[in-house]
Specification:
This protein is α/β, with parallel strands linked by helices. The protein contains 23 helices and 29 strands.
Length: 760
């Protein structure tokens, strides 16, 4: 099978970096279209059978219908090519998205938020699409290949080996787990830089077109030919526009006129966009927008990296209180740490290198001369760490201080989360451990005793996440961050925490974590979830109506009823009532599906001509005139090669006479009479019990570490303690209710799919 793999096209991107420069943004949007057309032409010329688009095809916030029509018209030009799209975080398959509200060409398949498998003649193709702008758990790592004898492809958008909280918001996946699944090829999207290597099977093609100065390097597509035994892959460059960085040192420049002259001396080449970085000491006030008023070449973008000047914040006659001094000083170093290492922001490698150089330059002050930044940090390390710790536990909102303080206003803004602060505090602790001479990172650097328990708990949980539970040592990714920063501060000759030190630190933090769990157990003791059936039913009614669940109601006169007992759930005792309501709703809908499967005759279909024939006979022979359906059989990809068959066309015509309606949260494919499809619930009862030791042991087995201990609630402990905690904190609950319904075999049919055959 031959394929093209692209991702992150970002159609109708605003190109914010270029927005201040006349029509440059519009030009890049036109180039997007040209490049996409080039891809389509390549597919036509080379008779490519598959096109994989791994997310972020367009920008949901900015996309225009005309652009969608442009894309779809190009898809029509390659009708013999099967196109698979998995929505990403910039183009999620929302209720009002174009993925749901546009008539896409018949060769286009769009994955939804359920993991799906599409079977074609050549391969089994699996995929998952974002249904929101964030995704923390797609469940993709639980996927199992059904037929290892076939070629198996996975198309997915997300972060490979996400190491921080931000990355984990975008469907973080473990590369080793994916490798072990046995896919012949994994088509990724989300990361705009390609990781292409001819022998790799898990590949980011990168963004098809560079979206800014943070995306240097080549941009294009991956083309390949796959057999069961071999992958032949190639990366083809498509984007001809090159982003270029130039530096101008302003130290010897004393006026805006001189600066303009220097900028205009730069030789401007075709197909290149230029970022001019102003570095060095600033001798005059500069406003970017004032600069743009001058006759500068339209392809020039200007940014600032000025010499780090501390005097404005700390040494002028402003009269800062000592506490403020340390808060600002900690923010200063933290800002530049983030600026240098944050990969998610618009920072190129060369830009970060410039910042590193800036970071270690001499600070300028009338009172403090010849003071290097690393020395300044070392001199105040304890106070700086205390300032950071205090901000974490007290929730001080100092995020935006730099906006009001020149010359720091061009520095990194608004990135300080609790997780980021804790990372930084621990990094400094590791680097300066020998100098500090203290051991308790929690109590020695935070206002610990006056801090709310929930913030203490969050703090130690985040600290513990930097350790490997099997070894009690720092995770490799965290150790690498420590090493980077240590090199930056020229402390390579100092000794980091030894393995023994790390184990001691882990044990200390782990004991604190266990003490929080023990306190929760005391708080939960003899506590049971109080359920008010009437109140619960009111909330379920509201939830059903909000979700637009078809058929839900209470006013059933003549009805069939079944007693339904839901599955067992292990839930914390302090779980919210809304969470319970959500679970009961799902149980009710599964009960309806169970009722239908047990009491309603199925339409048995296969994805071949026999399946089409059976559906055709159903339409002809059935006396009931169904007015609603929730599934379109003839749109399934497995029937693609039969789309011109006369019987297929007859079935499609008959099917389209029946209204297609949405049935949210139902997994069954059904034909039904809308007015007769009704169900409700009576006699709701919740069954609660304390889990036994044996039940807890079974549940905990999946969290067993290689050292024989168990990870419970993020803490490492022996099996006996974990069972004790679980018994105190968790309950097993299930729900029992009577399902009442008017659904009968005369007014409803469901589709039962027999294992599909290969497309002919």
């Amino acid at each position: 099978m031959k394929f093209v793999h692209i991702a992150d096209m970002h159609f109708d991107s605003p190109f914010a970096t270029l927005s201040d420069k006349g029509n440059l943004g519009e030009q890049r949007r036109l180039e997007q279209r040209k490049i996409f057309k080039k891809i389509i032409e390549y597919i036509k010329e080379n008779k490519i059978e598959y096109l994989f688009i791994a997310g972020d095809l367009y920008e949901h916030k900015y996309i225009r219908k005309s652009t969608i029509e442009y894309i779809n018209n190009l898809f029509k030009e390659i009708e013999n090519t099967k196109i698979f799209i998995t929505p990403g975080n910039h183009d999620p398959i929302l209720k009002k998205s174009y993925y749901n509200n546009f008539d896409w060409n018949k060769n286009v398949y769009i994955f939804n938020s359920n993991i799906q498998k599409i079977e074609t003649e050549d391969a089994d193709i699996y995929g998952y699409g974002f249904d929101d702008f964030y995704c923390t758990n797609s469940g993709i790592e639980n996927i199992e290949i059904e037929n290892p004898e076939k070629i198996n492809i996975l198309i997915i958008h997300g972060t490979l080996n996400g190491a921080n909280l931000e990355e984990m918001q975008y469907n973080s996946m473990n590369e080793k787990i994916l490798e072990n699944k046995g896919f012949n090829y994994v088509a990724l999207g989300h990361i705009h830089k390609t990781n292409f290597e001819p022998n790799k099977k898990i590949i980011y093609p990168g963004s098809t077109i560079s979206l800014g100065f943070d995306e240097l390097g080549e941009h294009g597509m991956v083309v390949g030919e796959i057999t069961k035994n071999e992958n032949k892959l190639e990366f083809i460059k498509l984007d001809e526009t090159e982003y270029v960085e130039k530096e101008i040192n302003c130290t010897e420049i004393n006026s805006i006129e001189e600066l303009i002259e220097k900028i205009n001396e730069i030789k401007i080449e075709e197909n290149k966009l230029y970022k001019i970085i102003l570095i060095g000491k600033r001798n005059f006030e500069i406003n970017i927008y004032d600069l743009y008023k001058y006759e500068l070449n339209k392809k020039i973008i200007i940014v600032f990296i000025f010499l780090l000047i501390i005097k404005y914040a700390f040494y002028d006659d402003i009269g800062f209180h000592e506490d403020k001094y340390y808060e600002y000083l900690s923010l200063l170093f933290q800002a530049f740490y983030a600026y240098i290492f944050c990969e998610k922001e618009t920072l190129t490698v060369s830009y970060r290198e410039n910042l590193k150089e800036t970071f270690v330059k001499e600070a300028q002050s009338p009172h403090k001369t010849n003071m290097k930044a690393p020395n300044l940090l070392q001199h105040h390390i304890t106070n700086i760490m205390f300032a950071i710790g205090r901000r974490i536990v007290n929730g001080h909102s100092l995020d935006r201080y730099f906006e009001n303080l020149l010359p720091y206003s061009s520095g990194k803004l608004c990135i300080w989360t609790d997780a980021f602060n804790i990372d930084y505090l621990l990094i400094l602790y590791v680097i300066y451990y020998r100098d500090i001479g203290v051991y308790n990172i929690c109590e020695d650097f935070c206002n610990w005793n006056s801090t709310e328990v929930n913030r203490q708990h969050a703090f130690v949980t985040e600290l513990l996440s930097k350790f490997d539970n099997n070894t009690k040592l720092f995770k490799t990714s965290f150790q690498e961050l420590c090493n980077k920063y240590q090199n930056l501060l020229d402390r390579t000759r100092t000794t980091n925490l030894t393995s023994q030190d790390q184990e001691k630190l882990f044990d200390l933090i782990n004991e604190k974590k266990k003490s929080f769990i023990e306190q929760e157990c005391r708080d939960f003791k003899n506590n049971e979830l109080d359920i008010n059936s009437e109140e619960i039913m009111e909330k379920i009614d509201s939830l059903m109506n909000r979700d637009g669940i078809i058929g839900w109601g209470h006013d059933l006169n003549e009805s069939h009823g079944i007693i339904y007992t839901g599955p067992l759930f292990y839930l914390k005792i302090d779980i919210s009532q809304n969470f319970i309501v959500d679970i009961i709703q799902k149980s009710i809908l599964r009960a309806v599906e169970t009722f239908i499967k047990n009491n309603i005759e199925a339409i048995k279909l296969t994805f071949d001509i026999d399946g089409i024939r059976n559906l055709n006979n159903f339409f002809k022979d059935n006396s009931v005139q169904y007015d609603s359906r929730n599934y379109t059989f003839t749109d399934d990809w497995a029937l693609y090669d039969l789309r011109d068959d006369p019987l297929f066309l007859d079935v499609k015509k008959a099917q389209n006479k029946i209204e297609l309606v949405q049935t949210p949260k139902f997994n069954l494919h059904i034909f039904f009479l809308k007015n007769e499809f009704k169900f409700g619930v009576k006699s709701l009862e919740m069954i609660q019990k304390k889990p036994s030791e044996e039940e807890c042991a079974r549940k905990l087995e999946n969290s067993r570490a290689t050292n024989g201990l168990y990870v419970y609630e993020g803490s490492l402990m022996d099996k006996g303690m974990a069972i004790k905690f679980m018994q105190n904190q968790y309950q097993i609950i299930s729900f029992k209710f009577e399902l009442v319904t008017t659904i009968t075999n005369e007014n409803t049919r469901y589709i039962e799919f027999i294992r599909p055959t290969r497309c002919k």
